[in-house]
């Protein structure tokens, strides 16, 4: 009967021991395969990570998967973390961003594959909602042709609702760089869509 209590007391003692350590120190401990350090990082950032993934994916189950994948990536790549380049918190949330965006891309590919096998629709025979869905699919297909940096910025702005200043903070880039990426990406999208007057209506999220 006393064993679980002793185990709980030990876990609490470990948690108290780690509480005073910086995030960067915990990442370095995780690089040495110390599971308690990973658990402490999850306690500190798990909720924020989930909220971020949910903003991008808008699906609780997919968001949970993205967070799990991100912390697994943290565990596997902790030895490559360089404290001089960025804060641990920024690095962790960037991992979450990337896993969430990866999930978005997988969903895009799934939808595009379904569209490729569907019969060519007749514009005159579909309602407005169906036509808008088709247009979104065309944009998603064009997105996959953009350079990674441009695509990531646009996808986070569109799917995640991040402003340019939020993207600059999250991605660790100057806001001028973010603006340049988004401008170049939007310009290239219009070229790829190949229709004069076609607008990619993401300005409300930028």
Characterization of the model:
The structure is a single chain. Mean pLDDT is 77; it is low at 1-8 and 196-206. This protein is mainly alpha-helical and 206 residues long. It has nine helices and no strands. 25% of the residues are buried. The radius of gyration is 21 Å and the shape is elongated. The chain has two domains: 1-100, RNA polymerase sigma factor, region 2, helix turn helix motif (Rna Polymerase Sigma Factor, Chain: A), CATH 1.10.1740.10; 145-206, Winged helix-like DNA-binding domain superfamily/Winged helix DNA-binding domain (Arc Repressor Mutant, subunit A, Orthogonal Bundle). 74% of the residues lie in helices and 0% in strands. The longest helix is centred in the middle third of the chain and has 29 residues, at 88-116. Helix 3 (35-57) crosses helix 7, helix 7 (148-160) crosses helix 9 (175-193) and helix 8 (164-171) packs across helix 9.
Q: What is the CATH architecture descriptor of the largest domain? A: Orthogonal Bundle
Determine the oligomeric state from the structure. single chain
Task: Output the helix-strand order.
Answer: HHHHHHHHH
What CATH calls the topology of the largest domain is: Rna Polymerase Sigma Factor, Chain: A
Helix-and-strand structural type: mainly alpha
Shape category: elongated
Q: Structurally, how many domains make up the residues?
A: 2
Residue share in helix: over 70%
Radius of gyration: 21 Å
Continuous helix count = 9
Residue share in β-strands: under 5%
Can you tell me the residue ranges where pLDDT is under 50 for at least 5 consecutive residues?
Answer: 1-8, 196-206
What's the CATH H-level superfamily name of the largest domain? Answer: RNA polymerase sigma factor, region 2, helix turn helix motif
Q: What is the overall pLDDT average? A: 77
Number of strands: 0
Output the CATH class name of the largest domain: Mainly Alpha
Main β-sheet, in a few words?
A: none
Cα-to-Cα separation, first versus last residue: 58 Å
